[in-house]
C-alpha cells in the first residue's frame, strides 16, 4: 500500500529542504518514490537538482482551453485521456525517484471540471509508488481541493521560534476544520541549537504537538545552498542527514 506523506510549514522554515532530505533518504533505501511539488513557489526541483521541469498547471491551462472546443464521440473520456497522457508526459524520471510539479494556481475561470479529472488521475497514479512525498503549501489549498485525497502523515516544519510553533498549532486546527482525510500530524523543528533545544521540547508539549524530530542548524546545508549544490548530494554523516534517518524510523519505515 502507498504511504503518502505531506510536508508543510510557513515560508523560511526549511520545509522544502526537509522534503528533499526525506526524498533522498527513502529513495536511497530502495523505496519506489514519487516526489510532488505542490508549492506555487516551486523550489523542490532546484533543491533536488532537477531543472527546466514542466508543471501540471501548464497542462491544466491547456486542457481548460480545449474544453471550449467541440469533441466527437465521448468528450469526457477524450479530455480525461488527454489530461492523463499530459500528466504522465511531464513526470520527471530521476535516479531513485520520479518528480511531478504542480505549478502555480490556475488563472481566471472555473477549473472545477479539470480538477475533478486530475483528482481521478492522481488517485490512480500514486498507487504505482511505495511512497509519495508532497512538498505542500502552508495554506493547504491542495488538501482543501482534495486533488490528492488521502494523506497518511502530515509533517509541519517549524523554525526554532514560539511563533513558528504557533503556526504549527494553527495548521493542525485548520486540518481538523477541513475534515480532510489526513491520518497523523507531526512536527519537525528545524535549525535547532543546543541553546534552545530544551525550551522547544517544552513548547511542543505545552501545545500538545507530536514532535518527531529536531534538525540541528547544519552549516553544510547553508554551504550547499550558497554554492547551488542540490541537497541530494549532502554527505550521509551531515548532522541534518543523520537526524532525518531518525525521523524516518519514527515514521515507521
Descriptive labels:
eight-stranded mixed sheet, 253 residues, alpha/beta, CO dehydrogenase maturation factor, ATP hydrolysis activity, 8 strands, ATP binding, Rossmann fold
Radius of gyration: 19 Å
**Structural class given helices, strands, pairing?**
alpha/beta
Summarize the helix and strand pattern as letters.
EHEHHHEEHEHEHEHEHH
| Rough outline | globular
Which architecture name does CATH use? 3-Layer(aba) Sandwich
The helical percent reads 40-55%
CATH topology: Rossmann fold
| CATH superfamily caption | P-loop containing nucleotide triphosphate hydrolases
Biggest sheet overview: 8 strands, mixed
Integer tally of domains: 1
Overall mean confidence score, pLDDT? 86
Binned strand content:
15-25%
| Count of individual beta strands | 8
Cα-to-Cα separation, first versus last residue: 13 Å
GO biological process, one term: negative regulation of cell division
Protein name: CO dehydrogenase maturation factor
Keywords: ATP-binding, Nucleotide-binding
InterPro entries: CobQ/CobB/MinD/ParA_Nub-bd_dom, CooC, P-loop_NTPase, ParA/MinD_ATPase
Describe the structure.
- It comes from Methanosarcina thermophila.
- Residues 5-230 form the CobQ/CobB/MinD/ParA nucleotide binding domain.
- With 253 residues, the chain is α/β, with parallel strands linked by helices.
- The protein has one domain (3-58, 90-110, 120-250): Rossmann fold.
- It has helices spanning 15-28, 44-48, 56-67, 75-90, 112-125, 141-144, 162-178, 197-206, 219-227, 239-250; strands at 3-8, 33-37, 92-94, 97-101, 131-135, 150-158, 181-192, 211-216.
- Strands 3-4-2-5-1-6-7-8 form an 8-stranded mixed β-sheet, with helices on both faces.
- A hairpin with a 2-residue loop joins strand 3 (92-94) and strand 4.
- The longest helix is centred in the last third of the chain and has 17 residues, at 162-178.
- It is globular and about 60 Å long.
- The two termini are 13 Å apart.
- The relative contact order is 0.19.
Amino acid at each position: 500500500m502507498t504511504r503518502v506523506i505531506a510536508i508543510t510549514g510557513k515560508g523560511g522554515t526549511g520545509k522544502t529542504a526537509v522534503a528533499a532530505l526525506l526524498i533522498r533518504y527513502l529513495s536511497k533505501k530502495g523505496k519506489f518514490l514519487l516526489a510532488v511539488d505542490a508549492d506555487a513557489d516551486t523550489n523542490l526541483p532546484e533543491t533536488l537538482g532537477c531543472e527546466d521541469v514542466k508543471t501540471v498547471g501548464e497542462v491544466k491551462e491547456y486542457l481548460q482551453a480545449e474544453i471550449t472546443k467541440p469533441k466527437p464521440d465521448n468528450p469526457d473520456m477524450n479530455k480525461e485521456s488527454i489530461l492523463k497522457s499530459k500528466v504522465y508526459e511531464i513526470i520527471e524520471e530521476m535516479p531513485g525517484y520520479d518528480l511531478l510539479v504542480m505549478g502555480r494556481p490556475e488563472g481566471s475561470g472555473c477549473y472545477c471540471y479539470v480538477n475533478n479529472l486530475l483528482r481521478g488521475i492522481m488517485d490512480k497514479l500514486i498507487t504505482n509508488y511505495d511512497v509519495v512525498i508532497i512538498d505542500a503549501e502552508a495554506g493547504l489549498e491542495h488538501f482543501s481541493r482534495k486533488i490528492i485525497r488521502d494523506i497518511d502523515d502530515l509533517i509541519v516544519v517549524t523554525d526554532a521560534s514560539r511563533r513558528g510553533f504557533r503556526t504549527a498549532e494553527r495548521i493542525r486546527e485548520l486540518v481538523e476544520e477541513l475534515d480532510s482525510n489526513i491520518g497523523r500530524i507531526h512536527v519537525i523543528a528545524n535549525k535547532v541549537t543546543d541553546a534552545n533545544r530544551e525550551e522547544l521540547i517544552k513548547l511542543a508539549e505545552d501545545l500538545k504537538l507530536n514532535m518527531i524530530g529536531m534538525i540541528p542548524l547544519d552549516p553544510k546545508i547553508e554551504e550547499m545552498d550558497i554554492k547551488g549544490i542540490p541537497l541530494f548530494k549532502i554527505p550521509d554523516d551531515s548532522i541534518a542527514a543523520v537526524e532525518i534517518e531518525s525521523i524516518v524510523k519514527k515514521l515507521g519505515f
